[in-house]
Amino acid sequence: MLNNLADIEQEITSCPVGNKEELEAYRLKYLSRNGLLTSLFEDLKGVSREEKPAAGKKLNEIKRMAEAKFNTAKAELEDKDTGSADMDLTIPGRSFSVGREHILSQTLAEMVKIFREIGFKVTDGPELEEEFYNFDALNTPAHHPARDMQDTFYVQDKNDRDKKYVLRTHTSPVQIRTMLKNKPPLRIVSPGKVFRNETVTYKNYFMFQQIEGLYVDKNVSMRDLKGVLDYFFRKFYGEKTVTRFIPSFFPFTEPSGQVDVSCFICGGKGCKTCKETGWLEIGGCGMVDPNVFRSVNIDPEEYTGYAFGMGIERLAMMKYGIKDIRTFYQNDVRFLDQF
Ligand SMILES: [Zn+2]
User: Fold this and answer.
1) 282 C-alpha to center of ligand 1: Å?
2) Are residues 207 and 320 located together in one domain of the fold?
3) Residue 219 — very low, low, confident or very high, per pLDDT cuts 50/70/90?
């Protein structure tokens, strides 16, 4: 029987199964209940004791091989089927999701590119900060309301009860770190996440991203500040954009200003987005306070500088007409896919 089985194995191996008809003929001939393999298992009963174990083993091998051949051929034919004449052309195609850069990363990259082109270097620093860098060095003394627990997330040092850290409330500590390590002239932008203990609403989130700029040199004036922001917003929101400054207050700049840009939706005529004013409030800026320079050992008699800061979410919301800040962080692909 063993010799016979070798022939049958050969025959099964070379049996064509290239289309549905051949495959069905193959199945009927070898694998069906009345097929060859079933009858061979019947024959096994009459085989001599000596030959039986080897023949049984061989027959089982052939059966497994024959079934595997059938399954492979069947799967291949089903795959090919999609190309056959009875294909339904009206079935919508399967779409694949393509990942892309988050809209905030895109916005930030665009902003950084503009600043780089005019000589700003990108710097960063830790998100968990010491109070000195986040407040003291920025002319924000211990009693200042900005240090209130209601606005700031404090983190207690596990090993030293007297030591506490803050989740930075702005990226300005990066400026302090940079000024402590480097001598002017300095021209940097520092983008990054900042944290405020705020109630989450459509326009406030407990974490957001900022980009801040700093320029320190001899004879830096407000005019330089206005020039650089004018340039930036024309590049970012379009050539017709106009920038204006309104007096404001920050502890770390003197004088301080609020930066507005002309509404790029209505061109300054007044619309819903700009609340009919023709202007959009964008961020803060000012000339670096001499006290800040003193805390980083830069002589305010010799050097002056400007600083500015803006929220990346806010700029992106206005640029792309996004109404709710929370959508940036919900990771809903339907939202993210639009950009
Ligand atoms: Zn408008």
Assistant:
1) 13
2) yes
3) very high
237 Cα to the center of ligand 1, angstroms: 13
The pLDDT tens digits for 263-299 are 988 888 998 888 899 999 999 999 999 999 999 999 9
Domain-located, residue 135:
no
pLDDT, tens only, 130-154: 999 999 999 988 888 777 766 889 9
Judged by phi (left if over 0) then psi (alpha if -120 to 50, else beta), residue 277 lies in alpha
Report residues near ion ligand 1: CB below 5 Å: 263, 265-266, 271, 273-274
Compute the distance from residue 280 Cα to the ligand 1 centre, in Å. Answer: 8
- Centre of ligand 1 to C-alpha 194, Å, is 28
Closest alpha carbon to 293 in 247, 252, 250 = 252
Tell me the residue range of the domain where 320 lies. Answer: 103-127+179-336
- Both 313 and 195 in one domain: the answer is yes
Distance (angstroms) between ligand 1 centre and the Cα of 97 equals 35
Q: Is the pLDDT of residue 84 over 60?
A: no
Ligand 1: centre distance to CA 239 (Å): 16
DSSP 75-128: HHHHHHHTTSTT--TTSPPPP-------HHHHHHHHHHHHHHHTTPEE----SE
Q: Which residues pair with 57 in a beta bridge?
A: none
Q: Is residue 133 situated within a structural domain? A: no
Q: 154: which strand partners?
A: 166
For residues 53 and 189, state if they share a domain. Answer: no
Of 41-45, 67-71, 142-146, 193-197, least confident by mean pLDDT is 142-146
Q: What is the CATH number of the domain that holds 303?
A: 3.30.930.10
In a domain, 23, yes or no: yes
Spacing, Cα 319 to ligand 1 middle (Å): 12
